[in-house]
Design brief:
By secondary structure, the chain is α+β, with helices and mostly antiparallel strands. It has one domain. It contains two helices and twelve strands, in the order E-E-E-E-E-E-E-E-H-E-E-E-E-H. The chain has an eight-stranded mixed sheet with strand order 6-5-12-9-1-2-8-7. The protein has a four-stranded mixed sheet with strand order 3-4-11-10, with helices on one face. Strand 1 and strand 2 form a beta hairpin. The chain is elongated, with a radius of gyration of 21 Å.
């Protein structure tokens, strides 16, 4: 199931150029983030080892109906660093690209988001701490520059993992109650 997360972005402005360049870090490793106010998520260092980033687009606000602002590998480079995923994009000289670049430069847009898939077994959920840990990302589909750097929904896959773990905790709690009731009767 494809998922989306957010991070920050900055305008690149190399000295002596007027190029429309954006530089960002859409993924930060080993940093807990609250997703949609519902659970904590951590992308572990190494989660991007062997991840498919060969056909990734840069979009504005996940709008697939518009022409991408950049694409790997020609006009956007994605690089894994010890801190996370680094992005550098050369935007086209279009009205939309200039508007996005200007808004980032002014600080009106400061968030990035990315959509991705996790392979089976690539994540885990700890119901006790309400934390999802992503150990492996299979593919990154797109990075987006967004007006709000918080994504309020989770994927069906993530909800399924969390709901199963919560159900197991609930079943264990119910069994503890029944055992206590039986023990009280025996005394």
């Amino acid at each position: 199931m494809k998922e989306i997360r957010t991070a920050t972005i900055n305008p690149g402005d190399p000295a002596g150029t007027s190029d429309l360049i954006l530089i960002g870090q859409p993924i930060v490793f080993d940093t807990p983030a609250v997703i949609g106010g519902q659970y904590t998520e951590v992308v572990k260092r190494g989660a991007l080892d062997n991840t498919d980033m060969s056909d990734c687009r840069l979009l504005y606000n996940h709008d697939l109906s518009k022409v991408p602002l950049a694409k790997t590998p020609k006009t956007m480079q994605l690089t894994v660093s010890p801190a996370g995923l680094q992005m550098k994009a050369q935007l086209p000289d279009t009205e939309e690209a200039r508007s996005v670049h200007t808004a980032v430069k002014r600080g009106d847009l400061s968030g990035m988001s990315f959509s991705f898939t996790v392979p089976p077994g690539g994540d885990s959920y700890d119901a006790a701490t309400n934390t999802r840990t992503i150990n492996k990302i299979a593919k990154i589909y797109e990075c987006s520059i967004c007006p709000w750097p918080a994504y309020s929904q989770t994927s069906v896959e993530a909800r399924s993992i969390m709901e199963t773990a919560k159900q197991k905790i609930g079943q264990i709690d119910q069994m503890k109650i029944k055992i206590n009731q039986i023990l009280k009767r025996g005394i």
